Structures are given as structure tokens and as C-alpha cells.
């Protein structure tokens, strides 16, 4: 049997970031991952995420940002429009006085950069291709059985193991979920015209289509959310048919579009654990919540969860207090639940507002969107949320002038 202070289940971006934030405290850590060791991709982008300024600050703090930035594409403008009306809204970095609005990064490259940093710490043990057979906790510790025979005893266990979290199921933590009744089609595409480092999103009657710029100036990653029937129709098309449908859906804003790789689809569901904590087991990131990708905030929300948890654990360790204290873990749960609920609610309003084709609602949203462009205070609020400069942020994620006021 082995003893560690904290076990993190899941070596995705959230789990590895948490390990990197905790490692300098001198705690003994174990990171358990059922998948393989991060390998990274050269030049090829698969599943990507949009990272905002708050996430960038955290990743810079743990030393992983230079390697992530080397394969990422910064975007300094965002254009959002409605295919069915005159509604349009634009943001740009120059107006906001920031270097970039965000970065499109390959998920596997993020993991690789974090893992390379983590290897420097001798107090962190990473286990890949590992099967967790059971999780049992007593009042004093959590016992994990790995690969049928190894026993690992820890004072705290963090479930960072994604939307189908095994930790959440093992602890029987209840989940609220609803189906968005949409699928997201993802692929890398070639564009006739250069993307000019602009992130674009068009709202179609069947769901939003995002064109996210990649390091190759004539390539984008698409996330095309549509109802299952439309998704099935699109995936049944040959490459030429899909290219035509995609070019039409984008209003040929980047000229003729063509597939670089085979499109794949996944179901979009909202999941929200109504309890994130049981004894010495706590959930973070996608294990606790998953949101619609239309605002590209899923990865950022998860990174803020682990930064918040690390901040509270750090405070406890510095004050020689017990970092597994239930009151401390409840503070984390209250803090991050409030932020997750706000995002989930706003995504739902957005999705419903834009997937309704009633003429009156279409007019209201067209006027509303155009109005946002005319109302600087409202536009400032929206862009602050997108940049990760609003909400109750952990200290590391804040702009220099601001600090967190959670209790």
C-alpha cells in the first residue's frame, strides 16, 4: 500500500494543472489516468479549445504557457452574426486594449506542455493506462484500488476525470442533466481566403457554426452544432457535398471551404453535479459540469475550478491548517458552483434564443445583437466575460489590479 496526500483522478488539462499548482507546496501527489501519456501533435490540430486571458495567466504561472503558445493561434477579433437577420456583433483586441482576445489550442498539446512541466517534480507520481477498480473512503482517508492489486491511500481525492466521471459515479453524486438535442460536428478545414486571426461564429436555424483560426493562415477548426437530423444528413454527404454545405452555411465568408480531415460528431449534453463533494472526495471541471460549446468556455471554466481549489489548499497549508477540512472544501464548492450556474444559465438563454425561428423572436435578437454593438457598457460586460476578466476569479487568474473576494 502507498500513501499520498492527494490523489487526482484524470490527467486532462484540469487534472494536470491542479497537480502543477499543488506540487510546489511539497505535498505528495498521485495522478491516475486511464488513457495514455500525453504525446502532443506536430502541426495537426484535432480537438481544440479556446483559452481566455484568465486561463493564460494560470498556465503562464505554472510555466506551461510558452510551449502551449508555440502551437496555438491567437485571435484578435471575434465576429458573430445571425444567418437569418441583420444581427451582427464584433469585438477586437485593439479596442479592448489587450494583446489577444484568446487562443485556439490543441487539447493534446496543452496536456503535453503541462505534463512536461510536471515531470520536474519528484513529489508527483503519474500513472497512465491505469484502471481504477474501486474508491472507498473512511473518515480519515480515501482508498483507491488500481489495476486489481495496487492500493493507494490518500487524504483527499479529486475527481478530474471528465463528463463520464468514474469518481462521481463511485461516490453516487447526483447529476442534473438535459440533452441539448444537438450534436457537434468537428473537423479541420482548408479555407480559400486567409482567416486573418479572426474567430467567427454564425447562428443558423439548426444551430451555431464556429470557424476557429489555426496556425496555418488558411485553416480553421470548425465546431458545427446542429440538431441530430441535420448532423446525420451532413455526415452522410461525400466530401464535395459537405464542403458545399459548409461554404453555404458560412456565407462563404472565407471563400470556398474544404475538409482537411474526416468530420466527427459527438452529442451535446449539459451535465451538472448537484453535489461536488462527499467527505474527502471533491469534483472539478467536466466531472462537475459540462456546458454547450457555443461560447467556448468549457476548458476555461474547468481551469478556474482547479485554480480556485489550489488557492484554498495553498492557504490552508501556509497556515498549517487541514486542507481536507470540510468547511474549506464547502467554500470551494459554493464558490465554483455559483460561477458554473451563471455560465450554464446564460448558455441556455443564448441557445434557446438563437434556435427559435419565430419572426418576432428573430427581430428581437437582431435588434438586441445590433444594440449590443451600440451600447458600450453592455458590450464591455460581454467581452469581459469572454476574456475571463469578470466573475469571482481565483487570484492567479485575475488582472493585476483585481483580486478575488470569495468567502
Question: Can you describe this structure?
Answer:
The protein is of the alpha+beta class and 407 residues long. The chain has a domain of 231 residues: 3-Layer(bba) Sandwich (FAD/NAD(P)-binding domain), CATH 3.50.50. Strands 5, 6, 12, 13, 14, 15, 16, 17 and 20 form a nine-stranded mixed β-sheet that branches. Strands 1, 2, 8, 9, 10, 11, 18 and 19 form an eight-stranded mixed β-sheet that branches. The two termini are 37 Å apart.
Sheet of most strands: 9 strands, mixed
Average pLDDT figure? 88
Shape: globular
Low-confidence stretches: 401-405
Just give the CATH class of the domain at 2-70 and 104-177 and 269-356: Alpha Beta
* Through-space gap between termini: 37 Å
CATH fold description of the domain at 2-70 and 104-177 and 269-356: FAD/NAD(P)-binding domain
Task: Name the quaternary structure.
Answer: single chain
What value does the Rg take, in angstroms?
A: 21 Å
Task: Give the secondary structure arrangement, pairings included.
Elements: E1 2-9, H1 13-22, E2 29-32, E3 48-51, H2 53-61, H3 65-71, E4 73-75, E5 77-82, E6 88-92, H4 93-96, E7 102-106, H5 107-118, E8 124-127, E9 132-137, E10 142-146, E11 150-159, H6 166-170, E12 175-191, E13 198-204, E14 207-213, E15 219-226, H7 228-236, H8 239-249, E16 257-259, E17 264-273, E18 277-278, E19 281-283, E20 289-290, H9 298-318, H10 326-354, H11 359-374, H12 376-387
Parallel strand pairs: 1-2, 1-11, 2-8, 5-13, 11-19
Antiparallel strand pairs: 3-7, 4-7, 5-6, 9-10, 10-11, 12-15, 12-16, 12-17, 13-14, 14-15, 17-20, 18-19
Helix pairs in contact: 1-5, 1-9, 9-10
Amino acid at each position: 500500500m502507498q500513501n499520498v496526500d492527494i490523489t487526482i483522478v484524470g490527467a486532462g488539462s484540469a487534472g494536470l494543472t491542479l497537480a502543477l499548482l499543488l506540487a510546489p507546496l511539497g505535498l505528495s501527489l498521485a495522478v491516475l489516468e486511464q488513457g495514455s501519456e500525453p504525446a502532443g501533435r506536430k502541426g495537426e490540430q484535432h480537438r481544440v479549445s479556446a483559452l481566455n486571458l484568465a486561463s493564460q495567466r494560470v498556465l503562464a504561472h505554472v510555466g506551461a504557457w510558452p510551449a502551449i503558445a508555440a502551437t496555438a493561434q491567437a485571435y484578435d477579433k471575434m465576429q458573430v452574426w445571425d444567418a437569418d437577420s441583420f444581427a451582427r456583433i464584433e469585438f477586437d483586441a485593439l479596442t479592448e486594449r489587450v494583446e489577444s482576445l484568446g487562443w485556439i489550442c490543441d487539447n493534446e498539446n496543452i496536456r503535453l506542455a503541462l505534463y512536461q512541466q510536471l515531470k520536474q517534480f519528484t513529489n508527483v507520481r503519474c500513472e497512465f493506462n491505469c484502471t481504477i477498480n474501486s474508491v472507498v473512503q473512511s473518515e480519515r482517508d480515501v482508498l483507491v484500488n488500481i489495476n486489481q492489486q495496487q492500493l493507494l491511500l490518500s487524504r483527499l481525492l479529486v475527481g478530474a476525470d471528465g463528463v463520464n466521471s468514474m469518481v462521481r459515479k463511485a461516490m453516487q453524486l447526483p447529476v442534473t442533466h438535459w440533452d441539448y438535442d444537438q450534436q457537434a460536428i468537428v473537423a479541420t478545414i482548408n479555407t480559400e481566403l486567409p482567416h486573418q486571426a479572426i474567430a467567427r461564429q454564425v447562428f443558423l436555424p439548426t444551430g451555431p457554426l464556429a470557424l476557429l483560426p489555426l496556425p496555418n493562415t488558411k485553416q480553421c477548426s470548425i465546431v458545427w452544432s446542429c440538431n441530430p437530423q441535420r448532423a446525420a444528413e451532413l455526415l452522410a454527404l461525400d466530401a464535395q457535398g459537405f464542403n458545399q454545405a459548409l461554404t453555404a452555411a458560412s456565407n462563404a465568408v472565407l471563400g470556398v471551404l474544404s475538409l482537411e480531415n474526416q468530420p466527427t460528431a459527438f452529442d451535446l449534453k449539459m451535465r451538472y453535479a448537484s453535489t461536488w463533494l462527499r467527505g474527502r472526495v471533491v469534483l472539478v471541471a467536466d466531472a462537475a459540469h459540462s456546458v454547450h460549446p457555443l461560447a467556448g468556455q468549457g476548458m476555461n471554466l474547468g481551469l478556474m475550478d482547479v485554480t480556485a481549489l489550489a488557492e484554498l489548499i495553498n492557504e490552508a497549508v501556509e497556515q498549517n491548517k487541514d486542507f481536507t477540512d470540510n468547511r474549506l472544501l464547502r467554500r470551494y464548492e459554493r464558490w465554483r458552483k455559483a460561477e458554473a450556474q451563471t455560465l450554464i444559465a446564460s448558455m441556455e438563454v443564448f441557445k434557446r434564443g438563437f434556435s427559435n425561428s419565430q419572426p418576432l423572436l428573430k427581430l428581437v435578437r437582431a435588434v438586441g445583437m445590433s444594440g449590443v454593438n451600440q451600447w458600450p457598457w453592455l458590450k464591455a460586460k460581454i467581452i469581459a466575460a469572454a476574456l475571463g476578466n469578470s466573475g469571482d476569479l481565483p487570484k492567479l487568474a485575475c488582472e493585476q489590479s483585481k483580486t478575488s473576494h470569495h468567502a
